[in-house]
Design brief:
The protein is 21% helix and 32% strand. It is built from four helices and seven strands; from the N terminus they run βααβββαβαββ. A seven-stranded mixed β-sheet has the order 1-2-3-4-5-7-6, with helices on both faces.
């Protein structure tokens, strides 16, 4: 399969997740990846008018990218955008190249956000996912997120529901706290 830039990328087994390179980006380090990130954002979030420069301009944004360092030039595989506001981290965008999905990229990016939250004394991580995005909801559940609300008709493009999820943490220790009773959703 190929990256956005046309470079060959070998298929990745789940055990290869540890070989992913997850790194933060800011306005000075995003460089040539700007176009690739914007293109992936537009494909994954149509109608959202995603632009990485808008996120990079916000002092509360935290952004990570995933690369495959085993290629001659590390290949861009996905990105994660969060907002760190007070004692909360809001996960806004998790995007993975279609050909790199189900290879641990999203899990590695989310694990980095959870580690960041623990290191910065965060109380909760929150996110929302489309009710139809079973793969994302399953990933978040595996990482310990629980559903706390369903917002009916949240997504204007197709009147789809949003599933709101959270991960509670002890801000003093960074440990994930046991989840409260969970709201069950029918997928």
């Amino acid at each position: 399969w190929l990256s956005d830039r046309g470079a060959a990328v070998r298929p990745r087994a789940a055990s290869d997740e540890a070989r992913l390179l997850i790194e933060p980006v800011d306005a000075t380090s995003v460089g040539p990846l700007r176009e690739a990130i914007d293109a992936l954002g537009e494909r994954c979030f149509p109608g959202a008018h995603f632009a990485i420069d808008h996120e990079l301009a916000r002092p509360w944004s935290r952004i990570w990218i995933a690369r495959d360092p085993s290629c001659v030039l590390p290949v861009f595989l996905g990105f994660l955008v969060t907002w760190h506001v007070a004692d909360e981290v809001h996960v806004l965008h998790v995007a993975t190249l279609e050909e790199a999905r189900r290879r641990g990229v999203g899990a590695a990016l989310m694990s980095e956000a959870i580690a960041y939250a623990a290191a910065h004394h965060v109380r909760i991580l929150v996110l929302e996912a489309r009710r139809s995005n079973r793969a994302a909801i399953g990933l978040y559940e595996k990482l310990g997120f629980t559903t706390f609300n369903v917002r009916e008709g949240y997504y204007a493009d197709n009147d789809e529901d949003a599933v709101e999820m959270m991960l509670a943490m002890d801000p003093a220790t960074g440990r994930v706290l046991p989840a409260p009773d969970e709201i069950r959703i029918d997928l």
